[in-house]
Amino acid sequence: MDLVLAGIKPLSLFASREKNMVGRLLNEHRKAIGCRHIGHVFVRRVKYKPETFVSVTYPGKWVLNYGLRSYFAIDPVVNHAEISSRPIILDELMVEDKRVRDMVLDARRFGIGRSFVSFSVMPSSEMPGSVMFSFDIEPNEFAAFFRQNEKRLDRAARKIHLDILAARGLAVPRSTGAELNAMERLCLAALANGHSFEEIALMLDSCVDRIGDMMSGILEKLDCGNSMQAVSRALTLGLLEEDDPMPLAAGAARLQGAGPTRH
Hints:
Layout: E1 2-5, H1 9-12, H2 17-33, E2 37-44, E3 51-56, H3 60-68, H4 76-79, E4 88-89, H5 90-93, H6 98-109, E5 115-121, E6 129-135, H7 139-167, H8 182-192, H9 197-203, H10 208-222, H11 227-237, H12 245-253
Parallel strand pairs: 1-3
Antiparallel strand pairs: 2-3, 2-6, 4-5, 5-6
Helix pairs in contact: 2-7, 8-11, 9-10, 9-12, 10-11
């Protein structure tokens, strides 16, 4: 596991330039968002053994306590990086899980925050991650705050994830020219949702051969060998994040009661 502690000056003397950049990014995002602390976890899926990377703004005393009490093994935020789900509000989870409750109460005693929420980022990509925000907001007030700020925090979590990947040199920059047009994004989004080429052709009012030609162009742009790798690469690069799901939903409606796909 690779750990970066933002703001811990003694350790910064031994940190690489990339790790120092990660620390600065976290603190910049923390100020912009107005949260108490940020914790970022992502898993690099390699052939033999996945690598876990952790970056946090927590004080060293909490990190030490966290390790001594083996919270890493029970922390849902750490495991959130490899699953697809809605945001995790720890104040809600601790009601049913005593281990999580003990960890959250301990974090409050250490001044880490009063309320905690974690967002899963790009769970189906090559480098899934999760971002945890802590706030000095009382739990009984946090539900209303979260309803008003969920989309903003979700966007911030994705931005943090992509910024840290880039800072660590683990993501291809967006300026590589591997941009996808709207139709190509829709095609990949449909593939990510489990649709076949035949279904996508019907949804996009096209034919299977044209969809195949489009996919060949996508594979070339993203330097991938197959469609599923292209979906994973596009998610990793954030090329699908601005996609509007409405055209896809409208196209999917055509599948109900539709006849055979045109060729």
